[in-house]
Amino acid sequence: MATILKASPREDLKGSATRQLRKDGYVPAVLYGNKIESQPVSVEGVDFLKTVREVGKNGLFSLEVSGKNKHQVMIHDLQIDPLKNEYLHIDFFEVDMTSEIDAAVPVRLTGEAPGEKEGGIVSHLMYEISVKCLPSDIPEEISVDISGLAIGDSIQVADIRSTVQVEITSDDEETIVTVQPPAAEVEPEGTEAEAKEPEVIGETGQEETEE
Q1: DSSP character string of 70-116
Q2: Name one GO cellular component term (predicted).
Q3: Element (H or E) spanning 61, and its range?
Q4: What are residue 4's phi and psi, to 5 degrees?
Q5: Domain 4-94, what fold?
Q6: CA 115, CA 179: separation in Å to the nearest integer?
């Protein structure tokens, strides 16, 4: 059974009304698509959180407006208050299930790099990979195995392209992860000599005075 999230139309778009919505536990949103007109809506915050946990960030679900009109949608944009960790606004995009779309898929590193055991530092550089496919084929995540990486090794997009079932649109040369050598502790040169220099000058000056 498809996941259903209920939404209500928003008639009052004033800032005061939007703030009151959030106080009441709702999240202001907009529903739009290539075949429908943009429509301001709101959803219950707790229900939306449950939906995201169930289908994932790139998942598809039905948005039911006013208890009758159902739209097959995905989350196109999500604004979050970083201080309060609250949802501020959501963009719901109605998808055409027969047309390919672009999506950003999260990257998850798996395994343990041998280079890390040797003191190297695993540097995760690319957290999302761009893909193009049918909405129903969008992966929830792309796993990248780092268990073969020694110090100085890296994995680029080209290295995982054949392991992903959908088309990757990110550039082959983009680096996903690398194992950097440990930072070397270099002792500054000349410090000791510089510290002694004022003392030598002082002694010379003293001898000249005494003469």
Answers
A1: EEEEEEEEEEEETTTTEEEEEEEEE--TTS-EEEEEEEEEES--HHH
A2: cytosolic large ribosomal subunit
A3: strand 61-65
A4: -120, 130
A5: Ribosomal Protein L25; Chain P (2.40.240)
A6: 7
Alpha-helical regions (H) of the chain: 15-23, 45-55, 114-117, 157-160, 191-210
- pTM value? 0.70
pLDDT at 12: 84
Q: Distance (Å, rounded) from C-alpha 115 to C-alpha 103? A: 32
Strand partners, 41: 9, 29
For 154-183, give one letter per residue: b (16+ CB within 10 A) or e: ebbbeebeeebebebebeeeeebbbbeeee
Which stretches of the chain score pLDDT less than 50? 1, 185-186, 193, 195, 200-211
Domain 101-180 = CATH 2.170.120.20 = yes
